[in-house]
Amino acid sequence: MADTETEIDLPSEVYLSELKEKSPTDLLAYAEMLDVENASSLRTQDMLFAILKELAEQEVQIIGRGVIEVLQDGFGFLRSPESNYLPGPDDIYVSPGVLKKAGLKTGDTVEGPIAEPGENERYFALTDVTSINFESPEKARQKVHFDNLTPLYPEERLNMESKDPTKKDRSGRVIDIVSPIGKGQRALIVAPPRTGKTVLLQNIAASIEENHPECYLLVLLIDERPEEVTDMKRSVKGEVISSTFDEPPTRHVAVAEMVIEKAKRLVEHGRDVVILLDSITRLGRAYNTTVPSSGKVLTGGVD
Questions:
Q1: Are residues 218 and 125 in the same domain?
Q2: Model confidence over 13-53: pLDDT tens digits?
Q3: Burial 117-149 (b: 16+ CB within 10 A, else e)
Q4: Does residue 270 lie within any of the structural domains?
Q5: What is the pLDDT of residue 301?
Q6: What residue numbers bound the domain in which 193 lies?
């Protein structure tokens, strides 16, 4: 092991997000380079945890980033967008002291150095906060709480028409003419099944990326097929968060609430946020399933 360590030229610091972006094959090769035991038999998240522990033992500074979820017990965890905010072994523990010092709330995107777990601990721990919602912690102290912000009618328009002359799809232009959308507005796509709603959402996402790079784009897929999620991730540059049909309704609700909390925190920092949700019908059904039954049932089994 000592000979191997001298041969490996490790950087002084490693970003956790860069490791998570690696493909499973590249991650396995990296784990084998670090001499992680039984790397090939580990799940991706467990392998990532083993890599982090090995790097920490070799005194490499690890920088973690995630969206914080504050639990009722007073502490929190940095959840990863790559795992759709599912709890996992690579989550980062945030102590009540760090939460209070930085004034963190559920939905804040936090970055900072992390320390390896102690003898009786399971998770890496955030030791300091260097960035909150892509800004310095000093700026975060001046933000206004979302509930105290004033809702206004939209004054700025989101242009949906693509400037690419080679693009044959004109759905964005049709939206601009028939139903223009402004920043701060809610819009609903109502259509029968198999009529191209998902493709229209992809076109809207592409138009926002092209015409409004200042907007932070969140695509939330609820109760969709896994292959549709993959297709959306490959065609959209924004952040795609999903809870597929094999997940329980409680999971759909948890993911949706995490996304809306993240959007609120970004708005508090003065960012423009666009959420594309597919589908609100299935999300409503998930909420209806999770609430206690009142005994009164409407048409379609809605409580």
A1: no
A2: 888 888 888 888 888 888 888 888 887 888 887 888 888 88
A3: beeeeebbbbeebebbbeeebeebeebeebeee
A4: yes
A5: 65
A6: 159-291
pTM: 0.82
Does residue 147 form part of some domain?
A: no
User: Which residues make Cβ contacts (< 8 Å) with residue 257, sequence separation at least 6?
Assistant: none
Amino acid at 178: V
pLDDT tens string 47-87: 888 888 888 888 888 888 889 999 888 899 998 888 888 88
Cβ of 195: how many Cβ atoms within 10 Å? 10
Q: Quote the tokens at residue 166.
A: 């080679």
Instruction: Say whether both 9 and 114 belong to one domain.
Output: yes
User: 87 with 6, same domain?
Assistant: yes
Pair (134, 164) in one structural domain:
no
Segment 246-251 shows an average pLDDT of: 90
Within a domain: residue 94?
Answer: yes
We report the CATH number of the domain holding residue 48 as: 2.40.50.140
Q: For 114-123, which contacts have Cβ atoms below 8 Å and span 24 or more sequence positions?
A: 114/16, 114/62, 114/63, 114/64, 115/56, 116/52, 116/53, 116/56, 116/57, 117/53, 121/93, 122/89, 123/77, 123/89, 123/91, 123/92, 123/93
- Asked, for residue 146, whether it belongs to a domain, the answer is no
CA dihedral (92, 53, 44, 77) in degrees, to 10, reads -10
Instruction: Show Cβ contacts of residue 127 under 8 Å, excluding neighbours closer than 6 positions.
Output: 98, 112, 113, 114, 115
Among candidate residues 140, 175, 197, the one where a domain is terminated: 140
pLDDT of 294 over the 80 cut = no
Alpha-carbon Rg for the chain in angstroms:
22
**Domain count for the chain:** 2
Query: Which of the four pLDDT bands, split at 50, 70 and 90, describes residue 8?
Result: low
